[in-house]
Amino acid sequence: MPLKKGNVPKIESILLPTDFSESSKNAMGYAVYLAGINKAKIYVLHVIEHIFDVSGFYIPNLPVNELYKAMEETAQEEIEKFIPEKIKEEIEVENIIISGTPFLEIIRTAREKKIDLIVISTHGRTGLEHVLFGSVAEKVVRKAPCSVFVVKQVGREFVMP
Ligand SMILES: Nc1ncnc2c1ncn2[C@@H]1O[C@H](COP(=O)(O)OP(=O)(O)OP(=O)(O)O)[C@@H](O)[C@H]1O
Ligand SMILES: [Mg+2]
Fold this sequence. Notes:
Layout: E1 13-17, H1 22-38, E2 41-49, H2 51-55, H3 64-80, H4 85-88, E3 93-100, H5 102-112, E4 117-121, H6 135-143, E5 147-151
Parallel strand pairs: 1-2, 1-4, 2-3, 4-5
Helix pairs in contact: 5-6
């Protein structure tokens, strides 16, 4: 049955979470395309992971605040160049940096900004060889309040038994 005009899903805001990996750059292409045809706004979100989540243990005497500050500065630089300037002339883009647990902050932002669609890649920086789906992507698909467009990474296809 063809969609009636009033039934066409509205995509006015797209959330693009990124760990700045090649895979998430690949997802960015899809987000830009979808934003272009829908005249949607893109929210680029980077979550700075808590040191405890990254290392799994406590390192005494680590200047945590200074470390976070440096991480935030690096993230700011990375996020600003994540979407090319030329594209930003055509599409509205807002960058968000939050520290916390990636999947939780992605879900929280999707709720707060009333996001219509999340565009996320299956893999990120670590991209464990045997895993078909990164853990962040999987949790986002399970818990998102909206639809999720999952961008597959070439070479990660399921092999028929
Ligand atoms: N810190 C983060 N901030 C924002 N988005 C993230 C973050 N980490 C991952 N993502 C998003 O999730 C996608 C998949 O990454 P994920 O971490 O699930 O895969 P992975 O690194 O291969 O697996 P894992 O982290 O479980 O080893 C990334 O391409 C990115 O879009
Ligand atoms: Mg990861």
